[in-house]
Design goal:
alpha+beta; Cytochrome p450; five-stranded mixed β-sheet; three-stranded antiparallel β-sheet; 19 helices; about 10% strand; binds protoporphyrin IX containing FE; Cyt_P450_E_CYP52_ascomycetes; heme binding; iron ion binding
């Protein structure tokens, strides 16, 4: 018995020594590599809990609850510079808005960084493994599978979009009364996204069935909780929110039924097929596993249905507060030959319209922040040392976090008027590379970028062709952020349109 106990003690001691030797070896190797590469530590704000950084975790939760997540990160950047580090759940987190660092993480040193260890655990219950939460070959496979859905042909399919836009315009009061555009844009984005995914719109703007409404509720709740799980990954295990699990189940049942119907239709030779790209049909060619199909679809649906609605709301929020911008947009639209069909090319050629979209995405990016985790030891080119000129040594497991919101408001990159909404800054002018990233960048750049900009541009032009005037009806002029998975305008966009031309 005693011999047995001794053996256990020896085994534990042996394992601990191996761990210690490995730990020391790694620390020394990293120290040497860091010296050799002239790396230095970035500044770091004082933290009460230097070991786990739970004070910063708590602060982040408070910031989200008080709707000042973006503003709070920006304040830290103002105080500690474009790059600083903090402790967060025991990990070292590098917050950076240095274009050189963003280029490294998102492009030139792409393979050293990933998202899976950060996201998958939070995302899995609702959307499963797919493009949003995986790395490496799994991610490459999803990305390749989805690419055709975003081809020029699909993006240019404006007649399909017109159906949804017309339903939206029909919902705008003609008597000059106030309308909040946020719920309408959300529903339009849902309709467009569902059509692309399932080949059939949920018709949330038209006549949604109670089943579709219930599904939307479930999806919204699931998504909101997913945002919270992202903030508190370590505590997810203890989360016992029955409504979240019930929402996930409803979302899955709904999507599974759609997939089953599409699979049945595909096998039926009497069914007429339209020529549009339908994501569910394409995924069915790859696999007949309903679970795999559901995951791929939900992984696109999540970013697709929210971000465009948010972007459109923010654009109208800004334009309504700057009447001269609406007037300039109208002037540009009136220059289009009467009766001319609006095409992808027409929209691209409208310089001021494109500038308005870029400016709104700069000031109020739909996705305010994103992060990556180091999959191996590497370096960031700048941000170390008191002047921020030295590289930073990155250890496997370190977290990189970028606030697009703070990046886009840097006065040294965008000018002293960086806080102001000025579309004119985009006319014949481009920001430095990697300084403007509303769609992120590199191989993981938003796959829906062109589609989103085209949909937003088309919708704005149709508003301009339908109404003469736009008026802000929100007494609160400042943008009040609301954090879900994206950064929304808490008050939406409360406006009135007058001078209907239809
Ligand atoms: C204005 C609207 C949009 C904005 C501002 C936006 C922004 C972004 C950003 C910043 C990312 C990178 C997130 C990260 O790496 O952490 C992203 C990724 C993504 N977006 Fe968008 N997005 C928009 C619309 C769309 C649309 C319409 C779709 C699909 C129809 C879409 C599909 C995706 C997908 C699938 C990814 C993941 C790409 C990958 O990891 O490879 N997005 N988006």
């Amino acid at each position: 018995m005693c011999f047995h106990r001794n053996n256990v003690v020896y085994c534990i001691a042996f394992a601990l020594s191996i761990y210690l030797v490995r730990f020391l070896y790694k620390t020394i190797t990293r120290y040497r590599a860091s010296k050799r590469l002239n790396c230095k530590e970035p500044p770091s704000p004082p933290q009460k809990d230097r070991l786990l950084g739970l004070d910063f975790v708590y602060q982040q939760i408070v910031d989200i609850q008080k709707d000042r997540r973006n503003a709070s990160i920006r304040e830290l950047h103002e105080k500690y510079g474009p790059t600083f580090s903090s402790k967060f759940y025991g990990s070292r987190k590098i917050h950076t808005v240095e274009p050189q660092n963003l280029q490294a993480v998102m492009s030139t040193d792409f393979k050293s960084w990933g998202v899976e260890p950060l996201r998958l655990f939070s995302f899995d219950p609702l959307i499963g493994r797919g493009i949003m939460g995986t790395d490496g070959r799994r991610w490459e496979h999803s990305r390749a599978l989805l690419r055709p859905a975003f081809s020029r042909k699909e993006i240019s399919d404006l007649p399909s979009l017109e159906v949804h836009v017309q339903k939206l315009l029909d919902k705008i009061p003609r008597d000059g009364s106030t309308v909040n555009l946020r719920p309408l844009f959300t529903r339009m984005a849902l309709d467009a996204a569902s059509e692309m995914l399932f080949g059939e719109s949920l018709d949330m703007l038209g006549n949604p069935t109670p089943e579709n409404e219930a599904w939307l509720q479930a999806m919204n709740y699931g998504q909101m909780t997913l945002g919270k799980r992202m903030q508190l990954p370590q505590w997810n295990f203890f989360t016992r929110d029955a409504k979240f699990w019930a929402s996930c189940k409803s979302v899955h049942q709904f999507v599974d039924a759609k997939i089953e119907a599409i699979a049945r239709a595909e096998k039926d030779p009497t069914q007429q097929r339209d020529k549009h790209y339908v994501l569910a049909r394409e995924v069915l060619k790859e696999t007949s596993d309903p679970l795999a199909i559901r995951k791929e679809l939900l992984n696109v649906f999540l970013p697709a249905h929210e971000a465009t609605g948010v972007a459109l709301t923010n654009i109208f929020f800004n334009v309504a507060r700057h009447p001269h911008v609406w007037n300039k947009l109208r002037a540009e639209t009136l220059q289009l030959p009467p009766g001319q069909k609006i095409t992808y090319e027409t929209l691209k050629s409208m310089e001021y319209l494109q500038a308005v979209i870029s400016e709104s995405l700069r000031l109020n990016p739909s996705i305010g922040t994103t992060s990556r985790i180091a999959l191996s030891d590497t370096t960031l080119p700048v941000g170390g040392g008191s002047q921020g000129e030295a590289p930073i040594y990155i250890r496997k497991g370190d977290i990189f976090s970028v606030s697009f919101y703070s990046l886009h408001r840097r006065k040294d990159l965008f000018g002293e008027d960086a806080e102001q909404f000025k579309p004119e800054r985009w006319v014949n002018n481009h920001p430095p590379r990697w300084a403007y990233l509303p769609f992120s960048g590199g191989p993981r750049v938003c796959i829906g970028q062109q589609m989103a900009v085209t949909q937003a541009a088309y919708t704005i032009v149709r508003f301009l062709q339908t109404f003469k005037d736009l008026e802000n009806r929100d007494p609160v002029l400042e943008f009040q952020e609301q954090f879900t998975l994206s950064t929304q305008s808490r008050n939406g966009a409360k406006v009135a349109f007058t001078g209907a031309l239809d």
